[in-house]
Amino acid sequence: MRNYKNIIYAIACLSFSIIIGAAFFEHLAVWPQAYAAPPASLGMFQGDYGLNAGAFWIKIHPVTLILFIITLLLFWKTDRRKNIAIPLIGYFIILVVTNFYFVPELMDIIGTEFSTNVNADLQSRGSLWVTLSLIRTATLIVLAIILYLGLTKNVGKQA
User: Fold this and answer.
1) At 78, is the secondary structure helix, strand, or coil?
2) CA 68: distance to chain centroid?
3) pLDDT tens across 104-146, in order?
């Protein structure tokens, strides 16, 4: 019976790690190109075949939240509770901040009309967005470590 709980915990860890991996991918492959010479460099997001990372993010976040909640419920009466609750709360706060700052700012930046003239204001906004996003990603890594450390705790112990 306990084994399925550990599998669900591991899947929650995997889902959270996928989010971090995708964030790393975007920071290494997307944002340096996107903000290189805006608005021309933002063309990768525009048109019928533009990059739509939102299709990934809109699906992965609800799945991860559901896995977190199920895992927390399964391990509520164990020492693992804090290792699940702390990352869940931190992740939820990050999602709120993402919804109110990161997504609207990104949509505004990438929605800029095409021009071959480099816009210094867009570069500055993009640079700030990337810096704050790196802080967000580092926070996710710390939360993931806390989550993974819960796997080392004895399930039989009551909190």
Assistant:
1) strand
2) 14
3) 999 999 999 989 999 999 999 999 999 999 999 999 999 999 9
Distance CA 21, CA 44 (A): 21
Q: Quote the DSSP letter at residue 114.
A: P
Element of type H or E holding 110? helix 103-110
Measured distance between the N- and C-terminal CA atoms of the chain, rounded to whole angstroms: 19
Residues 6 or more apart in contact with residue 94 via CB below 8 angstroms: 136, 139, 140
Answer for the pair 12, 64: CB distance below 8 angstroms, yes or no.
yes
Burial class (CB in 10 A: 0-12, 13-18, 19+), 106: buried
Place of tokens 């705790």: 153
Residues with Cβ within 8 Å of 63's Cβ and at least 6 positions away in sequence, in order, are 15
Count of Cβ atoms closer than 10 Å to residue 110 Cβ: 19
Three-point CA angle 22, 28, 33, nearest 5°: 115
Phi/psi of residue 35, nearest 5 degrees = -100, 15
Closest CA to 130 of 94, 97, 105: 105
Is the link from the previous residue into 39 a cis peptide, with omega within 30 of 0?
Answer: yes
